[in-house]
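The material for today's practical consists of a large collection of protein records. Read left to right, the backbone structure tokens trace the chain's path through space. An example says more than a description, so a record of this kind follows:
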Amino acid sequence: MAEANWYVVHTYSGYENKVKANIEKTIENRGLQEEILEVRVPMKDIVEVKNGARKTVQKKMFPGYVLINMVMNDETWYVVRNTRGVTGFVGPGSKPVPLTEAEMKPLGIKKDTVSVDFAEGDIIVVVAGAWKDTVGAVQRIDHNRGTATINVEMFGRETPVEISFEDVRKMN
């Protein structure tokens, strides 16, 4: 499988969150979770002073742009390019250009891969979050997203749940 890279997509101004939601819905509907890994609207905290009161608000870092971590192929290009609100990829002509490591660093996007001490089939315990103290067998590990999928019993049925690597540890 080809390597995933971060690409910049130009959108209509004010449509960034709508484009993000539409792409995520399309990923789910078409089963493209392995090709389109993440969609982001970069935000930064700004301190505003209004009527003497300090208030921290989030503002878009790049109005009119959305970042997408994906494996570039004809299908993923088509899906993103034909999403309502998208005007195109950033790059010369119609050829998208991936962001470099230097361009990604100030955005807080790390390409580090986390090594884990468990594998598929191992029993792990969730140590934080909504599923704290839940024990389950690892069904799938996704190093790109930093998550492990385990089955938990919910309403008398086995249900797959995706848990962040930071929230689990291997049982002894």
Notes: The domain at 5-107 is CATH 3.30.70.940 (Alpha-Beta Plaits). The chain has two domains: 5-107, 123-170. Residues 16-30 form the longest helix (15 residues). The helical segments are 16-30, 74-81, 101-104.
